[in-house]
TrEMBL record:
This is Putative pyruvate formate lyase activating enzyme. Residues 89-206 form the Radical SAM core domain. Keywords: 4Fe-4S, Iron, Iron-sulfur, Lyase, Metal-binding, Oxidoreductase, Pyruvate, S-adenosyl-L-methionine. The lineage of its organism: Bacteria, Pseudomonadati, Thermodesulfobacteriota, Syntrophobacteria, Syntrophobacterales. The keyword Calcium does not apply. Monomer. [4Fe-4S] cluster binds at residues 94, 98, 101. Belongs to the organic radical-activating enzymes family. Binds 1 [4Fe-4S] cluster. The cluster is coordinated with 3 cysteines and an exchangeable S-adenosyl-L-methionine. It comes from Desulfacinum infernum DSM 9756. Coiled coil: none annotated. GO terms for molecular function: 4 iron, 4 sulfur cluster binding; lyase activity; metal ion binding; oxidoreductase activity.
């Protein structure tokens, strides 16, 4: 992973949920989110199923916590991984169905186990004791109400790590607004620039519209990544973009949108580790890696646009596995 720049902005601020907890607002927010499960519109699919009654929508999860892994992840971007690693919580299920998903057993096939909020709280506290720098929620959109129940308990017991919201970027602005003060660091994807590519790759032509609206809402809340004297992020937003073969990711257009909408201070993580997984082997051009030329063109677009904050990420040694 090649670091471009790391601004030095010191901060000793407590995570946002710590402040909300003191005002009783964290419990109120958790209750409001839980109520949303009664007719679920947590993501842009707006299935309107009663998950409290055990029904499931596209994401195939009811009102229980379904978690695939809780672990220390050392391979996130340096301001997130630091020296102690990022404390990842991999939620099972997903609001998208990307044909190349590297974690498809977790996202599409329900691999995971039911945890109580108390169990997840204890696991997050264990991560804190192991010295991770944050709690990194991987694909959390459809399980935010369940996670918040655990967060209320963990915060009472002394959890004090920033919350990272690591999302596909397929989000509702309404939900992002409800997360204000709870999420410290937004880590969204910008996956596509065209509705056709989004439909081909993940079955949702509205991805681009919903994604861009959500990115703007996150940016208004969090702004650029804030990194302390030790090089660790405690607030802000870092946008990820995976370069797909055959131009499917619309990399120049995605980066141009970030430059235009967020400005030069936007933090971008440009990733080149795509490999065919899940259904992609049967769907050219997704049946191959991005070529060296395609990666070079993506890097050139990044530099041409003056987006200097962030990373050009080489292949993750974990191969995308939790
Ligand atoms: S979170 Fe799940 S049930 Fe709710 S709207 Fe999205 S896909 Fe449907």
């Amino acid at each position: 992973m090649l670091s471009l720049t790391v601004p030095d902005v010191s901060s000793s601020q407590a995570p946002g949920y710590w402040v909300l907890r003191r005002r009783g607002e964290l419990r109120r927010r958790a209750a409001a989110f839980r109520e949303m499960l009664r007719s679920c519109e947590l993501c842009p699919r707006r299935c309107r199923v009663d998950r409290l009654a055990g029904r499931t929508g596209f994401c195939r999860t009811d009102a229980r916590l379904l978690v695939a892994a809780v672990s220390v992840h050392p391979w996130e971007e340096p301001p997130l991984a630091g020296t102690g690693g990022s404390g990842t919580v991999f939620f099972s299920g997903c609001t998208l169905s990307c044909v190349y998903c590297q974690n498809y057993p977790i996202s599409q096939m329900g691999v995971g186990r039911i945890l109580t909020p108390e169990e997840l709280a204890e696991r997050m506290l264990r991560l804190q004791r192991r010295g991770v720098h944050n709690i990194n929620l991987v694909t959390p959109t459809h399980q935010i109400p369940q996670f918040l129940e655990a967060l209320v308990i963990a915060a009472e017991e002394g959890l004090r790590l920033p919350i990272v919201y690591n999302t596909s970027g397929y989000e509702r602005v309404h939900v992002i607004r409800m997360l204000e003060g709870i999420v410290d660091i937004y880590l969204p994807d910008i996956k596509f620039a065209s509705p056709e590519a989004a439909r081909f790759c993940c079955g949702r032509s509205d991805y681009v519209l919903q994604n861009r609206r959500a990115l703007l809402a996150m940016w208004r809340q969090a702004g650029p990544l804030r990194v302390n004297g030790e090089g660790l992020a405690d607030r802000g937003m870092l946008v990820r973009h995976l370069v797909l073969p055959g131009g499917l990711s619309g990399t120049p257009e995605c980066l141009a949108f970030l430059r235009r909408a967020l400005g030069k201070s936007a933090w971008v993580s440009l990733m080149d580790q795509y490999f065919p997984a899940y259904k992609a082997h049967r769907m050219p051009p997704l049946d191959r890696r991005a070529s060296e030329e395609e990666i070079r063109a993506a890097l050139e677009a990044l530099w041409r646009l003056g987006l200097r904050n962030g990373f050009a990420q080489e292949t993750c040694p974990c191969g995308g596995e939790p």
